[in-house]
Specification:
The complex is a heterodimer of chains A (88) and B (307). Chain A contains 4 helices and no strands. With 88 residues, chain A is mostly helical. The radius of gyration of chain A is 12 Å and the shape is globular. With 307 residues, chain B is an alpha/beta fold. Chain B has one domain: Glycerol-3-phosphate (1)-acyltransferase, CATH 3.40.1130. In chain B, the strands form 2 sheets. A 7-stranded mixed beta sheet of chain B has the order 1-9-8-2-5-3-4. Chain B has a two-stranded antiparallel ribbon with strand order 6-7. In chain B, helix 1 packs across helix 4, helix 2 crosses helix 4 and helix 3 packs across helix 4. The radius of gyration of chain B is 19 Å and the shape is globular. Classes of the chains: A mainly alpha (88), B alpha/beta (307). At the A-B interface, helix 2 of A face helix 7 and helix 8 of B.
Chain lengths: 88, 307
């Protein structure tokens, strides 16, 4: 598990009040929404806002595929890292 | 009955373009002469809109028998005339012809107060009256920037017409087909920059079927979208409702405080959204009774889902 993945999992837990979960319970490859962690579309919005605040990244609805970015912790990590690389 | 997004915008674009030209060149009085034949044409050939209008007027009347409104076919014709007039007002507002002297506002101080402190405000509008008139708010202060969220489906033609006549006000149209994380991030940017974000909260979403909440409206359960209320909850900023009604020939804008952006936990979220929807439906009903013929949802608003 990379540092970024760990950080993201903690962010998901904090932001969505999933107190009964630890970062070990979340599989990076597992689906975040519907099956898998079972988050819903409001969680996606909330998570999006939390990620924006923490990493100062934006998703562009015209350019990026929102559903794929939010598929799993792994895809989210990849997106945030590539955005940050682009900025650096 | 179809979902509103499946109904063509009353095929009304060529007629509107023509009427607006008449209005801009000859003024409102001459426009009235042309308005009736054009509206009669639409009224005759738009059975669905006509039926929905009669159904709405019946509901309004049985909910509020003291109200002096005409129902039936004749009532629906008046309703269509009112709609055509509103479209002209809409285009006039858009072209910048509307000035602050043409409007009266109620409750704007609280909104301006937030904006002056750099705090963005989220605004719930509707298809009652004329949301377009809100453009004039941009003229109140130099620094006010307005963002209007609109469904990209179904209104594309009308929007291209609007853009053709758009004035120089600082109003951004944000076209969305659904509310997702990207939209939320974008809106949060606007709110943090101290701007206004306006969304109509009375039409159910085009794509996501499930995100609908039912609330009592005119004595019968109707479906409302959850999206605008979810955003109101998550953006954690002051939220107001906005209604722009035409009263005795004058545009009157009403701002009412709706919620103050407090933190609501995930567990209470569903209940909070339901509560917001009911509160909004109540407000909508209040203003609807004030201006019954300015209800511009020409589809079966109370339709039951095929769940």
């Amino acid at each position: 598990m990379s540092n970024m993945e760990k950080e993201l999992k903690q962010l998901i837990i904090d932001c969505l009040d999933l107190e009964d979960l630890t970062i070990e319970d979340i599989n990076s490859q597992e689906a975040l929404f519907n099956e898998g962690l079972g988050l819903d579309s409001i969680d996606a919005l909330e998570l999006g806002l939390a990620i924006r605040k923490k990493y100062n990244v934006r998703i562009d609805a015209d350019k990026d595929d929102v559903v794929n970015i939010f598929a799993s912790v792994a895809t989210l990590t990849q997106f945030i890292e590539s955005e940050q690389m682009g900025k650096a | 009955m179809s979902h509103w997004s499946k109904i063509e915008e009353h095929g009304i674009i060529w007629g509107m373009d023509f009427l607006l030209k008449v209005y801009l060149i000859f003024g409102r009085k001459v426009l009235q002469v042309f308005l009736y034949p054009v509206v009669s044409y639409y009224w005759l050939f738009n059975k669905q809109g006509r039926t929905a209008s009669q159904q709405y007027l019946d509901r309004m009347f049985s909910f509020n028998p003291d109200l002096s409104i005409t129902t039936g076919l004749k009532g629906s014709y008046f309703h269509f005339i009112s709609f055509a007039n509103a479209l002209i007002d809409k285009l006039a507002a858009w072209s910048g012809a509307l000035t602050l002297d043409d409007v009266e506002t109620h409750g704007r101080e609280a909104v301006i107060h937030h904006l002056e402190q750099g705090q963005g405000v989220f605004i719930l509008g509707s298809h009652l009256g004329n949301l377009e008139v809100c453009r004039v708010i941009a003229k109140l202060r130099k620094s006010i920037i307005i963002n209007v969220l609109i469904h990209s489906q179904h209104t594309e033609k009308f929007n291209s017409l609007l853009n053709k006549y758009a004035g120089s006000d600082k109003v951004n149209l944000i076209q969305v087909s659904s509310v997702n994380a990207a939209t939320a991030m974008l809106l949060q940017d606007k709110i943090e920059a101290g701007e206004l974000v306006i969304i109509a909260a009375d039409r159910t979403p085009v794509s996501v079927k499930g995100r609908v909440a039912r609330a009592d409206f005119m004595g019968q359960s109707a479906a409302f979208p959850q999206g605008p209320f979810i955003l109101a909850l998550l953006l954690k900023c002051p939220v107001f409702t906005l209604f722009c009604l035409k009263e005795q020939g004058k545009q009157v804008i009403y701002f009412d405080p709706f919620s103050d952006g407090q933190d609501i936990s995930r567990k209470q979220r569903t209940a909070a959204i339901q509560q917001y929807v009911e509160k909004y439906a109540e407000k909508l009903q209040y203003y609807c009774v004030k201006a019954p013929l300015q209800w511009f949802n020409f589809y079966d608003f109370w339709q039951v889902d095929d769940e």
